[in-house]
């Protein structure tokens, strides 16, 4: 069996276009040949009808000429008149032969022609005779020409009927040809559309897989091998992307090792600096004056800030690494959220906040520890920004194929200029709570890493009304309903 995978995308696309174009061209050529055949038949029929009508008219005219010449010849016995009669009879015979020789000749027309010739023979016989039989011959001649006239009328009617039948047959064939051509065009268009859709869908699948692979690389999902099926060039591109994935994973691992190494290397001298500053402040190295104490205080504060930043860097790096190692199990979302709320009960009670967990009971396959960390970070963030006595609401809902968790608070919200960067590591927005220490800016970044690891997404939603304050975050996770 011929395998299409060994052909390139460009070759398959060209074959698809050529196949559809060939199908449409064949239908067009067949329709053209059908129309050409019908036109030829119509032209031939029209020429034959004109020819037979002219022959019938000529036969009638020559019959009148023959009758006039025959009557005058009986009276005058002039050889010129007899010659005129013979010429007319010859031309009438030619017209009669033409009528009988037509492609639509019928037995009735042959019989009429035979009767016409017998009557002509009778007329010829009446032109020869004794003078005393002239009166009888004139009467016989009159009856014979009357019979010729009737035969001429009958032949003309037969020609007219044959022409009408031929026209009706041609019209029927034309209608049949038109209907057949219409059916052929409809079938051809349907087949062409079907082929176009089939080729389009078949050729679009590798592109969708490429898009998904590129999106996965962009979202730092480096633990999933990239396997491409389809045309040869698409599979080759898939191999390139797999090489890129392995290279990015290697660079990411190197970065993580570098951060861990540098952070640990910095922590040791930093701890020594903090210890030395503490000894100085305790007067172990000797009494300090006021200016020296101020310098020691500044050194202590900055070393504490630096240590916190190093620990945040380590924590973010650890979260990004652990997000790729999930242990999934069925977890009921409202219970998981309630656990996080209970764990931070002292924090939100200290600010006299109300934390509500609403929505339907929904079980999903997730890593409870890591998703719990993400929900805990969001709750901690909401507590930090909420005003005293405010309300924080968790809402759980289900949409087709998705599980949603909405988190809203009544804090100052996120400034419009900060919304595009709110999930960036170490980014801190301009709207900070006045009564709290400035955050490190990695909480939401860790949340995004953990949610993406579950093939989900987190978004910061715009408030529905301009006067509504607070932040509204939404987590969406893949969810297959239980059967």
Folded structure, characterized:
There is one protein chain. The chain has 483 residues and is of the alpha+beta class. It folds into three domains: 193 residues, Four Helix Bundle (Hemerythrin (Met), subunit A), CATH 1.20.120.1730; 91 residues, Helix Hairpins (Orthogonal Bundle), CATH 1.10.287; 150 residues, 2-Layer Sandwich (Heat Shock Protein 90). Helices cover 67% and strands 8% of the residues. The protein is built from ten helices and seven strands. A five-stranded mixed sheet has the order 2-4-5-7-6, with helices on one face. The chain has a two-stranded antiparallel sheet with strand order 1-3. Strand 4 and strand 5 form a beta hairpin. Helix 3 packs antiparallel against helix 4, helix 4 runs parallel beside helix 5 and helix 5 runs antiparallel to helix 6.
Notable traits:
alpha+beta, 3 domains, Helix Hairpins, two-stranded antiparallel sheet, 483 residues, Heat Shock Protein 90
- SS-based class: alpha+beta
Rg over CA atoms: 53 Å
pLDDT averaged over residues: 78
**CATH class category label of the largest domain:** Mainly Alpha
What's the number of helices?
A: 10
Low-confidence stretches: none
Helix content: 55-70%
| Main sheet attributes: strand count, strand direction, barrel closure | 5 strands, mixed
Assembly type of the chains comes to single chain
Strand order of the largest sheet: 2-4-5-7-6
How far is the N terminus from the C terminus?
Answer: 40 Å
């Amino acid at each position: 069996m011929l395998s299409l995978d060994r052909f390139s995308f460009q070759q398959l696309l060209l074959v698809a276009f050529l196949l559809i174009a060939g199908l449409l061209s064949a239908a067009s050529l067949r329709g053209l040949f059908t129309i050409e055949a019908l036109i030829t038949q119509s032209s031939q029929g029209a020429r034959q009808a004109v020819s037979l009508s002219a022959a019938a008219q000529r036969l009638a005219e020559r019959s009148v000429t023959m009758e006039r010449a025959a009557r005058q010849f009986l009276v005058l016995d002039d050889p010129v008149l007899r010659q005129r009669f013979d010429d007319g009879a010859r031309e009438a015979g030619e017209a009669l032969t033409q009528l009988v020789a037509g492609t639509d000749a019928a037995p009735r027309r042959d019989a009429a022609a035979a009767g016409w010739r017998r009557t002509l023979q009778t007329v010829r016989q009446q032109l020869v005779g004794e003078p005393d039989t002239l009166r009888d011959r004139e009467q016989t001649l009159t009856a014979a020409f009357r019979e010729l006239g009737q035969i001429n009328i009958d032949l003309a009617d037969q020609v007219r009927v044959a022409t009408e039948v031929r026209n009706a047959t041609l019209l029927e064939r034309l209608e049949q040809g038109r209907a057949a051509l219409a059916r052929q065009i409809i079938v051809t268009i349907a087949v062409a559309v079907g082929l176009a859709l089939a080729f389009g869908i078949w050729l679009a699948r590798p592109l969708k897989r490429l898009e998904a692979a590129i999106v996965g690389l962009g979202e730092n999902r480096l633990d999933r091998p990239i396997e491409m099926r389809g045309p040869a060039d698409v599979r080759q591109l898939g191999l390139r992307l797999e090489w890129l994935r392995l290279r990015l994973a290697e660079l990411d691992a190197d970065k993580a090792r570098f951060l861990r190494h540098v952070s640990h290397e910095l922590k040791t001298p930093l701890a020594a600096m903090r210890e030395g500053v503490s000894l100085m402040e305790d007067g172990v190295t000797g009494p300090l004056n006021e200016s020296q104490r101020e310098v020691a205080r500044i050194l202590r504060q900055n070393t504490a800030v630096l240590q916190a930043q190093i620990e945040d860097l380590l924590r973010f790096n650890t979260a990004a690494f652990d997000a790729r190692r999930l242990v999934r199990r069925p977890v009921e979302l409202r219970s998981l959220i309630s656990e996080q709320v209970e764990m931070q009960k002292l924090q939100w009670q200290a600010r006299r906040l109300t934390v509500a967990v609403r929505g339907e009971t929904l079980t999903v396959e997730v890593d409870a520890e890591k998703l719990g960390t993400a929900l805990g970070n969001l709750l901690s963030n909401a507590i930090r920004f909420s005003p005293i006595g405010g309300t924080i609401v968790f809402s759980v809902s289900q949409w087709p194929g998705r599980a949603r968790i909405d988190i809203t608070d009544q804090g100052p919200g996120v400034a419009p200029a900060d919304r595009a960067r709110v999930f960036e590591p170490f980014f801190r927005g301009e709207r900070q709570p006045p009564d709290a220490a400035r955050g490190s800016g990695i909480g939401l970044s860790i949340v995004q890493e953990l949610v993406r690891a579950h093939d989900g997404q987190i978004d910061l939603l715009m408030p529905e009304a301009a006067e509504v304050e607070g932040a509204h975050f939404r987590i969406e996770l893949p969810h297959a309903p239980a059967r």
